[in-house]
Amino acid sequence: PDHTEKETMWSLMDIKPQTGIELTESLAMLPAASVSGLYFGGKCSSYFAVGKITQEQVADYALRKKMDVKECERWLATMLNYEP
């Protein structure tokens, strides 16, 4: 749910030169039909969804990412279980 991690993926894997896929200012991908994700293979692997997150979780995550809480809330807005 944290699209800011796309910046890390693009940097580590040299995505733009390798594929031509670009990130917009809001971290959408161009061309729009592009898809990215972290996929793990294994017989015990399964898909899971992340539920809504609390203020305490956002504060902890912001601290670990060295990001302002308000900025973190903006990026995670659809995942919050509270009104910022």
TrEMBL record:
Residues 1-84 form the AdoMet activation domain. The keyword Metal-binding applies. It comes from the Eukaryota. GO terms for biological process: homocysteine metabolic process; methylation; tetrahydrofolate metabolic process. One of its GO terms (cellular component) is cytosol. Keywords: Cobalt, Metal-binding, Methyltransferase, Transferase. GO terms for molecular function: metal ion binding; methionine synthase activity. Pfam families: Met_synt_B12. InterPro entries: Met_Synthase/Corrinoid, VitB12-dep_Met_synth_activ_dom, VitB12-dep_Met_synth_activ_sf. This is AdoMet activation domain-containing protein. It comes from Monoraphidium neglectum. The lineage of its organism: Eukaryota, Viridiplantae, Chlorophyta, core chlorophytes, Chlorophyceae.
